[in-house]
Amino acid sequence: MIYWVELHARAGQGDEVLRVLQALCTTTRAEPGALMYGLHRVGGDADRIVLYERYRDEQAAAFHMQSAPVQQALRVFEGLLREPPTLRTLQWEGGFGFAMVQSGDDDIASQTVHQDRRTGP
Predict the structure, then answer these.
(1) For 13-71, what is each residue's pLDDT tens digit?
(2) Residue 95 vs residues 42, 73, 92, 119, 120: alpha-carbon distances, Å
(3) Which residues are bridge partners to 40 per DSSP?
């Protein structure tokens, strides 16, 4: 499961949104099935943040979304964001460059890296 999440902070709140997401990144890293969690700012707009999330399967993604840290972050975001986060599900179609995948489960991370280098998951 791959997700693309867009967050648009209220004016001047991008740093605070990023701080919440960085803390969430730490807890997400320990979740079973969490393979990648990348935080990005949209160039030229400090109040727009994009997340690229990758999970082993639907169950791992559901576990993440239902976790207490995510639910707490969503409550905090109500006061920091202009609008609710936009969540898109992506489907892998090929590519390269995913060697930075890290996970608490080295076998899954290694398998993902090798699969990505060939043609996909």
Answers:
(1) 999 999 999 999 999 999 999 999 999 999 999 999 999 999 999 999 999 999 999 99
(2) 22, 31, 8, 7, 7
(3) 50
Structure tokens at 42: 């949209």
Q: What is the CA radius of gyration of the chain?
A: 15
Q: Which residue has the tokens 């701080």?
A: 19
Which pLDDT value is given to residue 98? 58
**Residues 20, 116: Cα–Cα separation, whole Å:** 30
Q: Which residue has the tokens 């976790």?
A: 67
Vertex 90: Cα angle to 113 and 18 (nearest 5): 85
Q: Is the pTM higher than 0.85?
A: no
In the beta sheet, which residues pair with residue 9?
A: 81
All structural domains of the chain: 2-94 (3.30.70.100)
- Report how far residue 45's alpha carbon sits from residue 26's, in angstroms, rounded to the nearest whole number: 24
